[in-house]
Amino acid sequence: MSEPLLNVEDLEVAYKVNGGEQDVLRDIQLSIEPGQTVGLVGESGSGKSTLALTVMRQLAANAQVRRGKIDFAGRDLLGLAGEELRAVWGRELSFVPQNPTTALNPAMRVGEQLAEALRLYGASAGESSAQATELLKQIRIAEPDRVAHSYPHQLSGGMQQRVMIALALSGQPRLLVLDEPTTALDVTTEAAVLDLLQEAVSQRNASMLYVTHNLGVVATISDRVVVLYAGELAEEAPTEQLFRKPLHPYTRGLLDAVPRLGQHKDQRPLQAIPGQVPRLEDFPNACVFAPRCPLAIERCWNERPTLDAPTPDRRVRCHRWPEIAADRVSAHREEAQPIRTKTQRVQPVLKVEGLNVSYPVSRSLLQPPASLQAVRDIDLVANSAQTIGVVGESGSGKSSLARAVIGLVERDSGNVELLGLHLPPRLGARTREMLSHLQMVFQNPDEALNPALTVGESLTRPLVRLRGLSAAQARQQVLGLMAAVRLPEDYARRFPGQLSGGEKQRVAIARAFASQPELLLADEPVSALDVSVQANILNLLAELQVEQQTALVLISHDIASVGYLADQIAVMYLGEFMQTGAAENIFDPPYHPYTEALLSSVPPPDPFVEQKRIRLEGELPSAIDPPTGCPFHTRCPRFLGDICVQQTPPWRETRDGKRIFCHIPEDELVRIQEPVLRFEESNS
Amino acid sequence: MGTALFALFLLAAILGPYIAPYGSNEQIVADARQAPSAAHWFGVDHLGRDVFSRVLLGARDIFSLAGTGTLIAVAIGTSLGLLSGYRGGWFDELLMRFFDSLLALPALLLALLLLGTLGTSRQSVLLVIIVVYIPIVARVVRSVVLSVKTRAYIDAARIQGESSARILFREILPAVLPALAVEAALRFSYAIFLASSLGFLGVGVQPPSPDWGLMVNEARDTLSQTPWAMYFPAAAISVVVMSVNLMADGLKRALQVGIVI
Q1: CA neighbours within 13 Å on the CB side: how many for A211?
Q2: Which of A26, A171, A371, B134 is geometrically suited to a Cys-Cys bond with A91, CB 3.0 to 4.6 A?
Q3: Which residues does residue A659 pair with via DSSP β-bridges, in sequence order?
């Protein structure tokens, strides 16, 4: 082993909050060798961002390093101040934040910002702008001159993040600290940014400390993984070992809670970790994970485990790791039963034909008002007790589709039928019966509940309004609803501000099911939640849906969770469906070229999956002037030529029951496409 | 601090008639033009009226005038702001452009214009306060509504078939209240200011009422002989306005409202 570049020892950090002190990190050990990428994983509240900021010496004013040492390239990083720190920042140690929009100066051209940094690191005034363009070229920006002359707001989020990376690399640093740099990006962009990062650091032999909550990203990018839980290091191991055989029950829990590509609820259900990340005023003299651990024994409650080293390159903080390592116990939760999709009489609930939705956009005074076509000629059928997943990246129109069906935006044209009833476009024109048959779960649980109403009040309203119950009857029913989403009764008197994100989403789900709807629309129901809670919510949706024989339309950017829950999947791009078909064979060719690229971009939370690499070039076209012919032709890796530009593609029915919106005939697709994903048997 | 000062004035306004040593128009001719003393804390004006009593009694007048005006303006402005922000479209556009045109005129000019048409009386001053502040309140409320109405819980209420009235008053209004409380306090202090200004200009409350602005105006002619007759009512105006502003500031911090004063 070579000398580590970064070595963190016994680090303890606390925040001053309301007069008291709250520990956020305790006894952190971390070392990074030159050229190595260490992934730092944890849920919100685990202290991962605090650790990254401590290493950057960028902690907030109310944070205090209580104890510990950080050695960086032979220097005591915590002892540096003022000019010494400035000499390290950028040149040896640099940072890529989550949100590039606020990190770039909006009033300065991108090229100038880069040139300014380069001058700071010693380039002469004359050569700095040429070097800036060169740097942009190195990180594979297609038109470096145009980008250099743009202001940040003229660039897409993915492009801005590339510029941030260029900026971080401009001083030739030896360590890059990245805080969720791709979390705000679409998967296809994320994949390209991850490629770029890997290439850039390996060329420079730089190291990375990569902070993320996404296990897929960690599996893809890191050599070693550090798992943080509630401010403590739970486990550290080389990536493959960690995924193959996690020794800490929390790591096991995380891995079981994330849907793999191809995992389906009726074969292998997700297993959620019960409870939530604790907020620690004082660290207990016990294992911090004990309250949520399936293997907790008495010792775990009375004695804090030490950080052991089972092998020289692994560390774990658990009393029972020797038993886990020897396979004598397992943190797998066996009780979860596969969720049976009882296929009784399946009947169509929702029929959508030729749906179009557009929004007026005012551009400038001189141009005529334009319209943004968010949804174009969509047909959709949803069956009772079945789930249709709609997958698409941001801007694909998937949310507009849901909002038009439920009536929150008015459709321009098209027909929406619910149980044979024609649904008028305007919400106000729909009858109480129509409203009660159609409900929705929203993305952000923090905004889905009125903060001024108690949980009980929020749940009472749909019962009174839509089911016509009296207030007293409704109060009785509320308890039943809360039990169905497994919330204790006394929560009825709480306000949303007193609930965690997962609990709020449960209330929102209970509210949606209150009117016993025939169809439930769920728009990104888990994307704002922590990994360990997501599984819970997905399973809850699936269970309630089966119980109530409700049709579910699940809208998500996450193809793995859609694949897990859905029976049918539609892939959406720029307002149109590209491909529809059964969920079980979405991972097998033939695919629509866009589906193929999408599958190839998702970082699998599994280092043993072999994934073909297909990257999309260019940017998502504007829906104000969508491309002619096939909407995907501007970025399609399998672009044929003029036919794609001039003619609208046909819907082709494949032998395995998919429908694909492409000019390439099925036989040709079969010939040229290999499966994007190959699953190696892993022992998990 | 602001609250304590304000409480003092409020107390004065309520108890004024009971603690004032003299009547508001009671003339003690013998003591006319006397400087502040133990008998006349704030001195006596050129007509022989006790300034302390007049300031005390004036507090009641101006508080009730500004208070009523603010209350009505807030009630109407809030309703219009809620409706305008939530409905949007041509209604919002029309109302807001009308309010813009009102706001384009300086408040005092608008007040003079109105008073010129209506004639000067206490009722007219009240009306002026209401008309001048409705657009301001409505705009503040509307801006909060615009940010709240895109939240998912409003969508959730809509797909439950809730009526617009319930959405406005039960779902949206609670979110508006913090900003509204701060705004109301500020409007109250500016209403005092406006009423006093009008009194000073001689178009507001008419003599011989113990109106602070009016008192400042009346004492102007005899400034060299009885400066106290001007200083004390003027000080009363500024201290009240300041105390209410301090209070609004504290309120804002306590409620964590992100609005700019």
Answers
A1: 23
A2: A171
A3: A580, A653
* Residues with Cβ within 8 Å of residue A86, at least 6 apart in sequence: none
Angle separating helix axes B122-148 and B51-87, nearest 10 degrees: 40
Please tell me whether the peptide bond between B106 and the residue prior to it is cis, using omega within 30 degrees of 0. no
Pairing relationship of beta strands A6-17 and A175-179 according to DSSP bridges = unpaired
- In chain A, pLDDT over 90 holds for what percent of residues? 56
Asked if residue A684 has pLDDT above 60, the reply is no
Burial class (CB in 10 A: 0-12, 13-18, 19+), A229: buried
Say yes or no for a CB contact (<8 Å) between B158 and A408.
Answer: yes
Contact A535, A566 (CB under 8 A): no
pLDDT digits (tens, 9 = 90+) for A229-252: 999 999 999 999 999 999 999 999
As beta bridge partners, residue B168 has none
Which of the four pLDDT bands, split at 50, 70 and 90, describes residue A345? low
Q: Which residues contact A428 (CB under 8 A, 6 or more apart)?
A: none
Q: Report the chain B residue with the minimal C-alpha distance to residue A443.
A: B152
d(CA A141, CA A551): 44
| pLDDT at residue B209, as a whole number | 75
Q: Which residue from B195, B203, B197 is spatially nearest to B113, judged by alpha carbons?
A: B203
Question: Dihedral, CA atoms, A629, A631, A634, A639, nearest 10 degrees?
Answer: -70
Tell me how far apart the alpha carbons of residues B6 and B244 are, in angstroms, rounded to a whole number. Answer: 6
CB-CB under 8 Å, A466 with B161? yes
When the pLDDT of each residue in chain A is averaged and rounded to a whole number, the result is: 89
Q: Report residue A85 as tokens.
A: 């720190």
3-state helix, strand, coil in chain B (%, to 5): 75, 0, 25
Interface test with B, best of A450, A463, A466 (most B CBs within 10 A): A450
Structure token pair of residue A149: 């002359």
Tokens in use for B136?
């301001």
Name the helix (H) or strand (E) containing A181.
none
Give the count of beta carbons closer than 10 Å to the beta carbon of residue B46.
14
pLDDT tens, A30-65?
999 999 999 999 888 888 999 999 999 988 888 989
pLDDT of residue A281: 63
pTM for the full model? 0.84
Are A490 and A478 in contact, with CB atoms under 8 Å apart?
no
Token reading at A590: 């033939």
Report chain B residues whose CB lies below 8 A from the CB of A430: 161
CA dist., res. A278 & res. A270, Å (int): 22
Output the DSSP codes for A662-679: -SS-HHHHHHH---SEEE
Of A427, A430, A442, the CB nearest to B152: A442
Which has the higher per-residue pLDDT, A678 or A111?
A111
- Which residues have CB under 8 Å from A663's CB, separation 6+? A630, A640, A643, A644, A647, A649, A650
Taking CA–CA distances from B151, the nearest residue in chain A reads: A447
Rounded to whole angstroms, the Cα distance separating A271 from B120 reads 77
Indicate the pairing of strand A37-41 with strand A224-229. Answer: parallel
Phi, psi of A360 (to 5 degrees): -70, 140
Scanning every residue of chain B, which has its alpha carbon at the shortest distance from the alpha carbon of A512? B156
Residue for token pair 């469906």 = A577
Bridge partners (DSSP) listed for residue A438: A519
Residue A452 has its nearest CB partner, among B152, B162, B175, at B175
d(CA A595, CA A664): 14
pLDDT digits (tens, 9 = 90+) for A574-628: 999 999 999 888 888 899 999 999 999 989 888 888 888 888 887 788 888 889 9
